[in-house]
Amino acid sequence: MAESVSSNDLLTRCRLLLDEIQQFRDYLTEHRKGKEVELRHFQNTIVSEQKSIEKVRHLSIRGSKVYVDSEFILKFIAKEADTERIAHTLRSSNLRFYEAVCE
């Protein structure tokens, strides 16, 4: 059976990884090596992953609550297929790969 993954756990790990990258960037700047190592693309990729996880988390939190958007009342009922899609998206996160690259 596939491992259960929490969106909160993934978001925490994203933040930690981004913090580590920033610390490394600061270290490089301090030692005047900042221009020799390009981290921007890698960092932006992790930020993109974080945003994707946040979107999925928002969907999973909404569940079957009623929301008012402008003049429309929207009701989102999480069906079993939606729940499976959300779980699959979280399990398929590339975060584990990004963490391995940073080790």
Mean pLDDT: 79
Q: What distance lies between the first and last C-alpha atoms, to the nearest angstrom?
A: 27 Å
In total, how many domains does the architecture comprise?
Answer: 1
Largest sheet: 2 strands, antiparallel
Number of helices: 4
Our estimate of the beta-strand percent is 5-15%
Rg for CA atoms: 18 Å
Strand order of the largest sheet: 1-2
- Helical content, roughly? 55-70%
- Spell the H/E element sequence: HHEEHH
Q: Say how many strands there are.
A: 2
Features:
mainly alpha, 8% strand, 103 residues, single chain
Descriptive notes:
It is a single chain. A two-stranded antiparallel sheet has the order 1-2. It is elongated and about 50 Å long. It has one domain (7-102). It has helices at residues 7-30, 40-62, 80-91, 95-102, and strands at residues 66-69, 72-75. It starts with 6 loop residues before the first helix and ends with a helix. The protein has 103 residues and is mainly alpha-helical. 8% of the residues are buried. Helix 1 runs antiparallel to helix 2 (40-62) and helix 2 (40-62) packs antiparallel against helix 3 (80-91). The longest helix is centred in the first third of the chain and has 24 residues, at 7-30. The protein is built from 4 helices and 2 strands, in the order H-H-E-E-H-H. Strand 1 and strand 2 (72-75) form a beta hairpin.
